[in-house]
Amino acid sequence: MTGYSIREKSEIDEAFKAIKMIHGNSLAVEVYWDQIEPEEGKFDFTSVDAIIDGAMRYGVKLILLWFATWKNGNMDFTPMWIKIIQNGSSG
After folding, report:
1. pLDDT in tens, 47-78
2. For the chain, what is the HEC assignment?
3. Which residues lie closer than 8 Å to 11 by C-beta, 6 or more apart?
4. How far is 49 from 47, CA to CA, in rounded Å?
5. Helix 46-58, helix 9-21: angle, nearest 10
6. From residue 35, how far is each of 12, 31, 67, 74, 76 by CA, in Å?
């Protein structure tokens, strides 16, 4: 399950049901900076809250993998507002 795939509660439930079905006890989920702070200073933890709620509901341990800036040489997880500043295009 990735942070970006979480669009509705049913997807979260399906992921946790699948973990329980295979007798798993933990789930690692990616969380991306651009998803949490799409605009500078404006935070949205809706998806993270939903994932935590699901883990608690299903009794599954949760590992949140924070992808903030660079991974594999790309700025894929950095919010657009940072990319604009990095490129010198802010005004």
Report:
1. 889 889 999 999 999 998 887 666 666 666 77
2. CEHHHCCCHHHHHHHHHHHHHCCCCEEEEEEEHHHHCCECCECCCHHHHHHHHHHHHHCCEEEEEEECCCECCECCCCCHHHHHHHCCCCC
3. 1, 5
4. 5
5. 40
6. 17, 7, 10, 16, 11
Give residue 2's pLDDT: 47
Tokens representing residue 43 in the block = 């935070």
Closest CA to 81 of 37, 26, 19, 21: 37
Overall residue count recorded for the chain in this entry = 91
Tokens 């608690």 -> residue: 56
pTM: 0.71
Go through 59-89 and write b for each residue having 16 or more CB atoms within 10 A of its CB, e for each that does not. Answer: ebebeeeebbeeeeeeeebbbebbeeeeeee
